């Protein structure tokens, strides 16, 4: 089991994210994963720096820490040719420590370039498929053109390529996206502890690792942790349909007014009890995931790192699917 730390780019500025990544390496995390947004989910979060700049700085400040985007949408805000170039460069400057996490995106971030974000999930998946085909094509070396239904590139070449392309983890929440992950990715990325997601991926021929975010909120008191998560991370309880469709933070503010403190304590492992965190992580291990990313919504990142070192690092590393789940 590999354990990652979520760099919440919507909640912290770039210098603080870099500092947290360095601290995560010192604490013994295997990798960090950063959200790639243009807007935060909520105005109260107050940040959204350019993820690729942050990752480049983290690569320069760390030695062995893995890096990942969680996740980049390579269809609207970025053209896939740009993502192919950016990922190849980051793989080089990190000495092969980078994993490209991709997904079909959210209206929150993609509409900002003035292109229509598709209402149809099927269209988004088709666009993602074409984007991955372009990225793979450009990583094969030489000049290439591509004419798809939604995306194209003309006479393009990525000149600086690593000897081995970075792995691609594709975000999935159901059978169609899991199939894309199996066919065009090297792994799967998810946010739900649903064993059906990994089952669809394996049945479609996917053999790579499964990345998943585990929602936790650390503070010395459970209520303090829960109130911090309510303030900054209640958007996570809206469900993927809402998360992918709303255009701006003000819409998420309105959509989450009914989220209660007890809803947070049900969804997040809140407070100082390591067993709550371990039980939450076990559900994801039982669902077939073997790359667990701790998404801490608590108010004190450094306190959480100390907690991880003291209480979580060793048991999480030893975590395996339970006999019942297996």
Provide a count of the helices: 13
Extended strand count:
11
Largest sheet: 8 strands, parallel, barrel
Question: According to CATH, what is the topology?
Answer: TIM Barrel
N-to-C series of helices and strands: EHEHEHEHHEEEHEHEHHHHEHEH
Quaternary structure of the protein: single chain
For the record, what CATH class applies?
Alpha Beta
Description:
The protein is an alpha/beta fold. It has one domain (2-318): TIM Barrel (Alpha-Beta Barrel), CATH 3.20.20. It is built from 13 helices and 11 strands. It has helices at residues 14-27, 51-61, 80-93, 107-110, 121-139, 175-184, 195-203, 222-233, 240-245, 249-255, 261-267, 274-286, 301-317; strands at 2-7, 31-34, 66-69, 98-102, 144-147, 152-156, 168-171, 187-190, 210-217, 269-270, 291-296. Helix 6 (175-184) links the parallel strand 7 and strand 8 (187-190). Helix 5 (121-139) runs parallel beside helix 6 and helix 12 (274-286) packs across helix 13. The two termini are 15 Å apart. The relative contact order is 0.14.
């Amino acid at each position: 089991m590999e354990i990652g730390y979520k760099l919440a780019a919507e909640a912290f500025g770039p210098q603080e994210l870099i500092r947290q990544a360095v601290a995560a390496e010192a604490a013994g995390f295997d990798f960090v994963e950063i959200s790639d947004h243009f807007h935060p989910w909520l105005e109260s979060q107050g940040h959204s720096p350019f993820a690729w700049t942050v990752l480049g700085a983290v690569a320069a400040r760390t030695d062995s820490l893995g890096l990942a985007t969680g996740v980049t949408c390579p269809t609207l805000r970025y053209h896939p040719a740009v993502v192919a170039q950016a990922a190849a460069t980051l793989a080089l400057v990190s000495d092969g420590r980078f994993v490209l996490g991709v997904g079909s995106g959210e209206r929150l971030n993609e509409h900002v370039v003035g292109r229509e974000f598709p209402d149809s999930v099927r269209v988004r998946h088709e666009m993602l498929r074409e984007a991955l085909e372009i990225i793979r094509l450009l990583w094969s070396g030489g000049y290439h053109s591509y004419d798809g239904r939604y995306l194209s590139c003309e006479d393009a070449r990525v000149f600086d390529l690593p000897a081995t392309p970075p792995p691609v983890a594709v975000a999935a929440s159901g059978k169609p996206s899991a199939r894309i992950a199996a066919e065009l990715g090297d792994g799967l990325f998810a946010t739900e502890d649903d064993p059906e997601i990994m089952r669809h991926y394996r049945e479609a021929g996917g053999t790579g690792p499964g990345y998943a975010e585990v929602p936790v909120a650390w503070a010395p008191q459970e209520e303090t942790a829960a109130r911090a998560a309510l303030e900054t991370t209640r958007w996570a309880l809206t469900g993927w349909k809402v998360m992918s469709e709303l255009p701006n933070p003000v819409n998420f503010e309105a959509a989450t007014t009914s989220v209660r403190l007890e809803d947070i304590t049900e969804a997040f492992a809140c407070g100082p009890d390591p067993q709550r965190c371990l039980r939450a992580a076990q559900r994801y291990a039982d669902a077939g995931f073997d790359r667990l990313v701790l998404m801490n919504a608590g108010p004190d990142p450094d306190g959480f790192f100390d907690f991880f070192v003291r209480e979580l690092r060793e048991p999480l590393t030893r975590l395996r699917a339970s006999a019942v789940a297996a």
